Amino acid sequence: MMQHIPVFSVLIPLLAAPICLLLGRQKLCWVFSTLVSWVALYNAVLILDQVLASGAVRYFIGGWEPPWGIEIRIDTASALVLLIVTAISSIVMPYAGESIAKEVKPHLQPLYYTAHLLCLAGLCGILVTGDAFNLFVFLEISSLSTYTMVSLSSDRRCLTAAYQYLVMGTIGATFILIGVGLLYMKTGTLNMLDLANLIAEHGFSRTIKTGLAFILVGVSLKLALFPLHLWMPGAYTHAPSAVSAFLAATATKVAVYVMMRFIFTIFGKDYVFDEMGMDNILMVLAVVAIFNGSIMAIFQHNAKTLLAYSSVAQIGYIVLGISFASAMGLTSSLLHVFNHALMKASLFMALGAIFYRIGSVKIDDFRGLGKQMPWTMAAFSLGGLSLIGVPLTAGFVSKWYLVSASLQQGNWIVAALILGGSLLALVYVGRVIEVAYFKPADSDKVEVKEAPVGFLIPMWVVTLANLYFGIDTRLPVISATSAAELLFQGASHIGVMP
């Protein structure tokens, strides 16, 4: 049974999705989806333990070895992000029970849980597949499920947000498919490691360069890299709270993984950065994303929109680490993928609890919530401190590595810009905290109660994780360092495919 663990990562949620739809009742669907998420998390823990102990895991579908067959291949990078995705799903699912019951119409609630499981299957599939075309297929499974989840809110503005997300996501997927098609036309293979070897043999022709350009643009759309981020604010703002928490912590992180996989495993860092000069392009876009996203967040009146623009800035930090083209920079990116997932899950969960009680996430309506909902606002405040990068929080660790990677290259200007971006985060997080703690409650909201336990427990699990991994950094740092070293070496540590 242990030898089949890699394929279970996809099969468990994929087969569970139609079963969930057949269950039909909200309670049953919620319990079943929660159980499936926990099983997927247990499977991911086993995989990460195995990968850290004995190296990359390979599994051949139907016993057919690549390049003829489809391969599942999980190394440290994919195992780490797989753990993040399944852990966030396992935390969001218990939270979703009451949240979805309030924010989604009863007859649509089973559809939400089905779409969540399909999205989980797609995200896991992206992370474990060793085949470029199957990566596109799983990307579309997760994307179509995501569009559905965003559109299920009782707020009708979610339909416009979902449609915009659909259009932008489809354009991105089309670019990726064209890029993969160009690579296949030139090499005759879709296996990632085989692609890496054959691309190097072909000397990077014009066809392969064009394929790289299409893929990077498509992936940048999926991960919402500035200026291709316009779908994100609407999608995160108008989606149900549980959906915002899950997507902000997982979807863009998996897209970042896809970018890393194509750059470092398939094309190779020397070609992408040294010959094509993509490091400079990514660095400029990342820095602009940090400041544009942070400044836009400062002027928002809706807290969910504020966090959405904050995500644009945080994606900028992640891509900035990639642009350093160093093992330290890649380590900082992977660390921020892990830590940002914890931050945004905590923050969006807190906003979901607030919406459950007061029916609004406008910042002006947060007056007095520091006293009325102390546990919820404490969780939001701690998540905000991690977002800023205050010491003893997870956010500090990844930003420390990011600044260290910048100083390692003697780039003091970029290091200063990183610190400047953190100061802007202090401004927009501080706005929310100021209203909640230092302004009196409105007279018509004096009876606001703390969120139910079903909200508080999952919210505080991920909030405490922000603190724990800011103190005990062994798991994320060891995993991220190992993953970065392997990715930075490219495909050379695997050897030539048969």
Tags for this entry?
498 residues, mainly alpha, two-stranded antiparallel sheet, 20 helices, 2% strand, globular, disordered C terminus
Helix content: over 70%
How many strands, what sense, and barrel or not for the largest sheet?
A: 2 strands, antiparallel
Strand content: under 5%
* Annotation, overall tally of beta strands: 2
| DSSP helical segment count | 20
Protein structure class = mainly alpha
Helix and strand sequence: HHEEHHHHHHHHHHHHHHHHHH
Describe what you observe in this structure:
The longest helix has 32 residues, at 327-358. The chain has one domain. Residues 491-498 have low confidence and may be disordered. It is built from 20 helices and two strands. Strands 1-2 form a two-stranded antiparallel ribbon. It is mainly α and 498 residues long. It has helices at residues 5-23, 26-54, 76-103, 109-128, 132-150, 157-187, 192-201, 206-223, 231-238, 241-267, 269-275, 278-298, 303-323, 327-358, 369-372, 374-388, 394-408, 412-438, 453-471, 474-488; strands at 57-60, 71-74. It starts with a helix and ends in a 10-residue tail after the last helix. Helices cover 77% and strands 2% of the residues.
Question: What is the topological layout?
Answer:
Blueprint: H1 5-23, H2 26-54, E1 57-60, E2 71-74, H3 76-103, H4 109-128, H5 132-150, H6 157-187, H7 192-201, H8 206-223, H9 231-238, H10 241-267, H11 269-275, H12 278-298, H13 303-323, H14 327-358, H15 369-372, H16 374-388, H17 394-408, H18 412-438, H19 453-471, H20 474-488
Antiparallel strand pairs: 1-2
